[in-house]
Amino acid sequence: MADIPRNHPVLRLGTRQSPLAMAQARETANRLCAAHGWAEGAVELVPVVASGDKIQDRPLAEIGGKALWTKELDAWLAAGEIDASVHSLKDVETLRPEQFTLGAILERADRRDRLLGAASIRAIPQGAVVGTSAPRRAAQLLHARPDCKVVTFRGNVATRMAKLASGEADATFLAAAGLERLGESGVGTPLDAQDWLPAPSQGAIAVECRSDDQEVRALLSAIDHAATRAEVLAERALLEALGGTCHSPIAVLCEQDGDALAMRAAIYSADGADRTEGEARFAAGDLDAPRALGRDLLARATPAIRALFGGEP
Ligand SMILES: NCc1[nH]cc(CCC(=O)O)c1CC(=O)O
């Protein structure tokens, strides 16, 4: 068992303030307490309002991308105001400052998207309005259903469900993991990875700490899930090779398959008309294979797809 620091509370965990972020931070705190035999309250949650939560009316890709989710927490972590920060790994930029490290990646929850408002992609009514601001979800939908109209849908999970209920769209997508963590696991229909791949790292919670903070690194390592780490780091290696940004429609899933990892990935043009897919099988920890898959996808992609990759984050 790791040493419990003298002062109480022992660990200050920074988190965004949205209900989903708070649920993820509580789950992280519970796991830390269970792993180390700490009393409740040994982990203090420190909520901050992230820039990404302040601007709700425009797609994230337009207003500055994933950095808007981590900016405030990064500043607090760098300054020592918090010991670690909890993120949805899919919202964390691929290239992070050297001063931070992924101290723990928790066991991945359901990786799938869920469709709300229709029983399947095929069952969405002809010409329906579908709310999403994720380039991946928009492109995947339009690839399968070019008759649909995509409208911007931002805000936290409850906001998006309310927008759907009020008729702003006929259907929308939400991550199964997020719904589950909010106690809404029965909402909508899960889309199986066979025909609808999720976002890189979807369903995984990441806990970042300062790279030079050996004490916190040791504490966090107790809740790290090695199999999840291998999968999501491979997905992020693919992302890195693609030079993908939050404008880039990338769908990928890496899963344990016997004693190896199996990855399937697809990249799209913004309008979903073009799609290039590929797959690879490799050993856990091999990041060259997913990078090679990324380069291979780009080499085979159309100009309309390639225009969305290799850009600035
Ligand atoms: N883009 C926002 C976001 N970031 C993480 C989740 C859910 C949790 C996860 O996927 O890990 C969500 C909501 C959603 O996409 O529906």
UniProtKB/TrEMBL annotation:
- GO annotation (BP), single: protoporphyrinogen IX biosynthetic process
UniProt catalytic activity: 4 porphobilinogen + H2O = hydroxymethylbilane + 4 NH4(+)
**NCBIfam families for the chain:** hemC
Q: Which cofactor does it need?
A: dipyrromethane
Which residue numbers delimit the Porphobilinogen deaminase C-terminal domain? 231-299
Q: Which EC class is the enzyme in? A: transferase
Please describe what this protein does.
Tetrapolymerization of the monopyrrole PBG into the hydroxymethylbilane pre-uroporphyrinogen in several discrete steps.
**Name assigned to this protein:** Porphobilinogen deaminase
Assigned keywords, A-Z: Porphyrin biosynthesis, Transferase
Q: Does the keyword Transferase apply?
A: yes
Q: Which family does it belong to?
A: Belongs to the HMBS family.
Q: According to its UniProt record, in which pathway does this protein act?
A: Porphyrin-containing compound metabolism; protoporphyrin-IX biosynthesis; coproporphyrinogen-III from 5-aminolevulinate: step 2/4
InterPro entries (alphabetical): HemC, Porphobilin_deaminase_N, Porphobilinogen_deaminase_C, Porphobilinogen_deaminase_C_sf
Q: Which gene encodes it?
A: hemC
